[in-house]
Description:
By secondary structure, this protein is α/β, with parallel strands linked by helices. The protein folds into five domains: 5-197, Rossmann fold (3-Layer(aba) Sandwich); 205-341, P-loop containing nucleotide triphosphate hydrolases (Rossmann fold); 344-412 and 499-528; 423-486, no CATH class; 574-633, Arc Repressor Mutant, subunit A. It is 46% helix and 17% strand. The chain contains 26 helices and 19 strands. The strands form four sheets. Strands 3-4-2-5-6-1-7 form a seven-stranded parallel β-sheet, sandwiched between helices.
Amino acid sequence: MTSGPYDILKKYWGFDHFRPRQEDIINNILQHRDTMALLPTGGGKSLCYQLPALLLPGITIVVSPLIALMKDQVMQLQQRGIKAMHIASGIHYNELGTKLDNCIYGGYKLLYLSPERLQQDMVIERLAGIQVSLIAIDEAHCISQWGHDFRPAYRNLSRLREILPDTPYLALTATATQMVTQDIMNQLEMPGATLFKTSFKRDNLAYIIHEEQDKHGRLAYIFKKHQGSGIVYVRSRKSAQLFADFLKTKQIKAHYYHGGLSNAERDEKFKEWSQGKVQVMVATSAFGMGIDKADVHTVVHVEIPESIESYFQEAGRAGRDGNDAHSIMLFSESDKKKLNNQFVKVIPSIKDIAWVYKKLCAYFSIGYGEGHDETYRFNFMEFCSTYKLNTIITFNALQSLDRNSVLQLSQEFYRRATFKFETSPVNLTYYLIKNPGMDEIVKTILRTYGGIFDQAMTIDHATVAKKAARPVKKVHEVLITLEKDEMGTYDHKSHDTAVTFLEPREDRHTINRIAPDIKVQNKRKIEQVNAMLRFIENDNVCRNVQLLNYFDEKTAQACGICDVCQKKKRDGGGLAFAEAKNVLLLLLEQGPATSRELETAMPAIAGKDLLRVLQILLEDKKIRITPANRYELL
């Protein structure tokens, strides 16, 4: 009996119904037609190629720039009993050939590749000899110079068109204007593609923007009020840890997540959050892509995102289950300057990028014509210190080299270490009896590394941590303790960055080739920052209307639930300004109070308006602020 889309949906995903437009997209693919799909974050884009892959003969190729997302999707497919593979970066040439052979002859249905892989002749040659029924391009906006994450490596998709001219394309994205959409279809040579688009409007999601000086206090207030699962987005690793630690002091269970954590640590934190054991994940933008957690009801930005596209994607991770949800942004006037400082003033020039590239090659002693497909791990701060480089501009220069396919950049926690026991097995046994907390990790090391009493062995912290069911950090601490107690020698060095060179070193030729693209990207970055600032400052037009208009979905219908709409409701039927002053004075007659306490006592006035009234009362010398930061009558 032949299975259809609904049979496959029920068998492998357990659903009885498709989400909006999914069925139409799948049927169009099954009819062997080029397809362009614009679905919002959480709209179920991955199912649109995963399900057809099971109904079509041969294999489906999925092109994605997100390594973590590829890994996550392959793992989920394998758990469902679907044969899928992703080819990671940095693997040896021989291993690449073996993996491709296994994929071709092993009955696999989906093969995930990064766009950079399509630069390799071996990959193209192997794909030309197999039956490819569908090519799915995820994050398709990356192929457009006008897209917010332009990656020239996506232009290599034309090579697939050459070797597989009859294979249909499916291009998917969550954020694209009309201009970007048209550019995607032009670049992919699919002018006759059927376009499927759902509205970007989210009726259940309230976009709220607050000007806030006490972000910590407001954050605690938010998650006490909204006790469901939440995400807090920050811009730095340090901020992630600080905000998470603060929430814990307020008895709110929170984890922090960023690219500097080991894979084991990220997996552990994500697992506890996804299972509801932890309420809030405080994270950098490294967190979120491909996350399938429908019950996130609150997303908070405590710093201004660099673009409306990024904001829209991150905010859209709230309310995927259809229940009421909030996307809240907390900002201060200083944050606007900070945004320019972080994203405009530190945009690397062509000269900056050329200098960083030259010094990177010198750092690893890479000669002209060398370095192709080689991976190097290093400590980023040590590299900058060696050549007295500005850290932010240098990192942005590396990102630009990554974006333009000169190299592949990854931030990772990696500790290359060796260890050798300098004592006898008998003495070690007595030592562990006196130090029982180290027992499991030490025994795991002994089981994993034979001969470690005789010679120094390279230790993989993640492997030991996984086998011992302990955090990676704990493995490192145990090894340090063993050396301190003269039980062994621990030689270790930390790395937080890795680069894989995608082409041989050719200084001037390399930079001159990518210079025109970099100029376009830099100009686009400035435009995006300015658009984000205009969005924040415009408190006269419904937030939802502003977002929809940005993505060329023209509408005049206000959402009724954003901060702008709520303010208009209050202005029409809430506290008048004069009345608000009188109520405030009456409240303060009962004793000093904080702005948070006053706001709770006056729900009919917005926090921003309350601060304005308080400022006027301060200027009129009706009230004052105490050393304890409370307001009281004069």
